[in-house]
Amino acid sequence: MTERRDVKFAPSDINSQTGVFSGYGAVFGNLDSHADIIMHGAFKASLAEWRARGRLPKMMLMHGSNGNPFTGDDLPIGVFHTMREDAKGLFVEGRLLAIETDYGRRILSLMKGGALDGLSIGFRVKRSSPGRGTTKRWLEEIDLKEVSLVDDPSNDLARVSTVKESAFAASMDDAYAKMQAALRSLSAAEAAPSPDAELGKLAAQLRSYTR
User: Fold this and answer.
1) Alpha-carbon separation of residue 107 from 31, 80, 91, 98, 152 (angstroms)
2) Which residues are paired to 120 by β-bridges?
3) CB distance 79 to 18 below 8 Å
4) Residue 150 and residue 143: Cα distance in Å, rounded?
5) Can you tell me the distance from the alpha carbon of 65 to that of 153, in angstroms, rounded to the nearest whole number?
6) In DSSP terms, which residues pair with 94 in a beta bridge?
7) How far apart are CA 142 and CA 127, in angstroms?
8) pLDDT tens, 49-92?
9) What separation in angstroms does the CA of 154 have from each of 6, 36, 121, 150?
10) N or C: which end of the chain has fewer CB atoms below 10 A?
11) Alpha carbon of 82 to those of 18, 23, 92, 182: distances in Å?
């Protein structure tokens, strides 16, 4: 049976131009709403198997029709290009696809607005130990199937942490125009060396910081 665990992410830094975001699909050592705790190293074998296949688990929306019959289809909504364990948990970074379409823009808007701010893993437990007290199980080895964007994760720590947006780069053209107008007005009152040329150098330098 495929199980699911969710983690919240913060939609504060999403790239509106590329759709790139990152976050944690799972957090180690944290008691989730299912009374389970995922142990460090639980994904190691599964990630090695995925790498041997030359790909990573799919990026889905609400686990596709298995998680929500109203999603309409089981097509992936993007691709993951990084997936690894670190000291905190299962770190993932990926990119939404088709963000130039109405459907893609809607998903991106929901993420940036905080309505779609969770990551959820679909998995099967391969090895676990019984817990004590409020802990039902210690999950020691997990067979990872997919990672979904969700709206209500079971683990508040597993949220998208960054949806990288370069607001500075996006507003560069507008800033450039305003600076150009200001320099031209100043040049009327005093002799200024080629305001357009000087401004071009400044704009090129500023743009280099956003790459």
Assistant:
1) 29, 16, 21, 10, 15
2) 6, 148
3) no
4) 20
5) 17
6) 21, 80
7) 7
8) 999 999 999 999 988 866 555 555 688 999 999 999 999 999 99
9) 5, 11, 10, 10
10) N
11) 15, 11, 5, 44
Q: Residue 122 in contact with residue 49, Cβ under 8 Å? A: no
> Which of 50, 28, 32 has its CA nearest to residue 41?
28
Tokens of 200: 């071009």
CA–CA separation, 41 and 110 (whole Å): 32
pLDDT in tens, 20-42: 999 899 999 989 888 999 999 99
* Closest residue by Cα to residue 32 from 174, 102, 134: 134
pTM: 0.69
CA-based nearest residue to 67, from 5, 24, 117: 5
Q: Both tokens of residue 144?
A: 């990872």
Question: What is the three-class DSSP state of 116?
Answer: coil
Instruction: Please name the helix (run of DSSP H) or strand (run of DSSP E) that holds residue 206, with its range, or none.
Output: helix 195-208
**Phi, psi at 140, each rounded to 5°:** -100, -30
CB-facing half-sphere around the CA of 11: CA atoms within 13 A? 18
Cβ atoms < 10 Å from Cβ of 134: 8
With b for 16 or more beta-carbon neighbours within 10 A and e for fewer, the 154-182 pattern comes to: bbebbbbbbbbbbeeeeeeeeebeeeeee
Q: Is 132 helix (H, G, I), strand (E, B) or coil?
A: coil
Tokens 């998995």 correspond to 123
- Calculate Rg over the CA atoms of the chain: 23
